[in-house]
């Protein structure tokens, strides 16, 4: 043994071999180490760590060259890699409890007889490693190549064809026999020879193709096992995957390659099996239930043979030959090319697809050829048959009609379903009712004489009204005919469409009337305030930036203190200002009294002239120059008048100061007693005691001085108060005396006699002049009385010694520099008075809209069957504003297109309709108050629907085209109730209407001659209704608004007459009741609405909404998007 770098080598040299009892390769940590064994034979080899240290970060590797080890123990927290570096190397037993173990063959082989893994470590097997027996108890193992002859999965996880990151491995790997007992098995790549399940195995999953081989190395299952599950009962369910791309299985699953030690497991085939034989075995824990064999829709079995009693066979795919050697229950929805009932009593749901040859060209009533051994029995639950005219078509032949050895017990049927009728069928005549009528003559000896099947028709025939009583008596139920269904669909969908469109149009009309004034105002604002608003947005952006800078500057400690002080002073100022305003009001009241006195003494206050208003015109307006010249002239006159006014005002004030008034009593105020300062509650040792006490003593001295002044003012106030009260009482002065107002003479209208309003204006003027003369006479009388009273007032005023003094306005505190520098928010420009010219130029004339909608619904047909529908459509229109005197309204048109699909899945009937429609609508707001507006709406409309109806039946397509002309009209009376101004409104309405049309005749037929024909004759119809609606409108800011509402429509006549046809014969009477043939519509419809609107300034308005339209027999859910533009 010698060292080579960081490695250690045991090599006898010279090509000799070395043999020993045992060797130990241990690490004490530090660094990775490798031991090379060349030409060495050992009984026992151990790899571990010193003192149980944690060396799980390190590798202790062993490289083998032509070496043999009897037992290798890999132990401890360490990572180990054993590599066959050269020649052939063998290890009889490996006991792995290390953290990680890698087994690599490289370009040479490493043979291991037994590999045991019993702890939670990890192992990986690479290419050129052959393990005869691998017992996995715990942990994880990844096979990235090589071969494991027998894998006993007793716990842990085994990953075939995967790396330790669960990626697909570089090599496939092979397992000869997989024994599943416990744990988890997953396959990503590679091959498996065979699988053995033990009774304790719960689950395994596979993700790629598995190859199973029998003893002679021929593949017995070359496909994919997708899943193996252990059921609660103890049985295992095996699902076989689709293997069509990889070839067909050539052997059965019962040849031992796939071994199931619990014999009652269910089998599901998803691939291709050449044959599957279920032998006669004990039923085990499943008792009398037997096993379940399922063949998937995409799967196939060449020969399926079962000898287990109570076997259940579910076939959705293809079975070439089905052999029932014991009693079985068969459910077939696929194809069984050959059925051989050899023993026991078996049942099958139907013979459709059984013994009828190739699928695709087979109709349900085609002859089935089956084999039944004497004394065996087959019971068919439902036998599909056909009729030529009213006579049976032979449906079943037994044993190719070559044997007459039946005992009249072998073949029975529970129910006969008539699926095919031709063009000669007459529901008024009887049909073949015996089971033997539907079995070929050579097979009558096998028919069970006690079998008395009941009759019914197929869903397709029931969907067109053809039915059979249980005893086989035919019935044509006209109310369930295709004519009834078509009429019901056409009228119901027409009512749905009209109610849906009416909902959309009512909402559109409300938006048109509501938003036209708003849109007009927006256009005027855009035209007149566009530049100002653009500048405002710039100023606002700048203000926000400046304010952010100012906020940062104002947040300093010094500026915060200055701002706080100013705010305190400003609060006191605001309080003083409030008191000043009160005093000023009292003063002004007294001034009015003095002005009245001055008037009695012929002293008149001068009147301040009014400044002229600058014209609101643009330089481009035609009257701009003239208006500006007039304005300049008026401005000069105003300035001269102001100079005279100021001189007269000075003289007036000097004279008025000499006057005294009794109103002084109202302005005489009691002095306010000063408040004594509060002595501070501080101890002498407080740090602020001296400063606070000095301030208190100063305040105390000021208080004493103010208190003396208050006592003097109070005494003077009481004396003046008494003198004024005596004076007022003695002179009986009326303080509320007011000068009478001279009435204004009416202005004669400046109209020519030929003006249309001349007479009306002159009549009004004459009446106003009479009223003026009467008022002027009364004014002269009041004026004399007023002057007598004020002579007394003059004397009273002269006697007073107190002077009227104006209150002194408080001085506002000085703003600190920081507040003075605060940026001011710009004012948003607002629209002023709107001229008639401006209004006429920008007024909304009308609007245009387009709406796309779609919906889906479900309904009950006239025979109670469930149908479904979906539709898409477009609605567009335009309205024009109408000026109706003092009221308003609009008139408009609308049109659109709708595609609708109706499906009656049970009867394989579908109808597709293309509808075009046009309408005219008028609305008028005939009255309006502050609380509500009242309106009515009238509507007329018409349209045409082209309907393509088809039905798939017995491999044929029946079809027809139906045309429907429809019309309608309605009138509605409603109100707009303003709940919160114009932001929240309620819209109740009631109305009546009619919906009608003309449905053309049609006949459903196929291209093949002699087949069934059915349809209906043409007919007109009309349905009248009454309706009520309630909608609630709410605005959220300037952009968003919503509408929530609903309505109810009651049909006053819900029955429509029909005339169905069958094979050329028309039916006007319901045979079972004797009543006239008719369709009964749902008696009412209802709708619920929710719409959300978004308003833009220039791009129009957008909305999205949901409308549910329903009735007694169904409901439709509709969604829509709308664009609305005013012009």
Automatic annotation (TrEMBL):
Query: Keyword Coiled coil: yes or no?
Result: yes
The family database entries (InterPro entries) matched by this protein are listed as: Autotransporte_beta_dom_sf
Q: Which residues constitute the signal peptide according to the record? A: none
Where does the record place the region Disordered?
Answer: 807-826
Keywords in alphabetical order, please.
Coiled coil
Coiled-coil region(s) at which residues? 559-604, 628-662, 693-727, 755-803
**This protein's name:** Autotransporter domain-containing protein
* Species name: Helicobacter canis
